[in-house]
């Protein structure tokens, strides 16, 4: 099964390329590179649903936290929790 995981935008890189909009997104403390090309309105501090490195849409913080809660209950966040245990956020 493929899932879209909510994450919080930490930073957005300035680029002249309008199609590739690179950003750093935090997932349970793990930062990943994400393309924001489908969500041009997204900004730092916003939550986005991400699938295979591409943000599909913005979500509000409450919806993001609820989704993360349910994903945690079914064990889908174990990989992120293991990585964040090994690499704690400063």
Please provide a written account of the structure.
This protein is of the alpha+beta class. The chain has a single domain, classed as SH3 type barrels. 24% of the residues lie in helices and 34% in strands. It contains two helices and five strands. It has helices at residues 61-73, 78-86; strands at 5-12, 22-27, 30-35, 47-51, 54-59. A five-stranded antiparallel beta sheet has the order 3-2-1-4-5. Strand 4 (47-51) and strand 5 (54-59) form a beta hairpin. Residues 83-90 have low confidence and may be disordered.
Chart the SSEs and their pairings.
Layout: E1 5-12, E2 22-27, E3 30-35, E4 47-51, E5 54-59, H1 61-73, H2 78-86
Antiparallel strand pairs: 1-2, 1-4, 2-3, 4-5
- Total helices: the number is 2
Radius of gyration: 13 Å
Outline, from the CA principal axes? elongated
Run of helices and strands: EEEEEHH
Mean pLDDT over the full residue set: 84
The structure class reads alpha+beta
Strand content: 25-35%
CATH topology (level 3) name: SH3 type barrels
Low-confidence parts, pLDDT < 50 over ≥5 residues?
83-90
Biggest sheet layout: 5 strands, antiparallel
């Amino acid at each position: 099964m493929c899932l879209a995981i909510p994450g919080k935008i930490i930073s957005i890189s300035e680029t002249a390329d309008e199609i590739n909009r690179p950003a750093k997104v935090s997932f349970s403390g793990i930062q990943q590179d994400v393309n924001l090309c489908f969500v041009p309105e997204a900004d730092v501090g916003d939550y986005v649903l991400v699938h295979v490195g591409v943000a599909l849409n913005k979500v509000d913080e409450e919806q993001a936290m609820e989704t993360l809660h349910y994903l945690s209950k079914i064990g889908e966040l174990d990989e992120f929790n293991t990585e964040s245990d090994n690499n704690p956020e400063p």
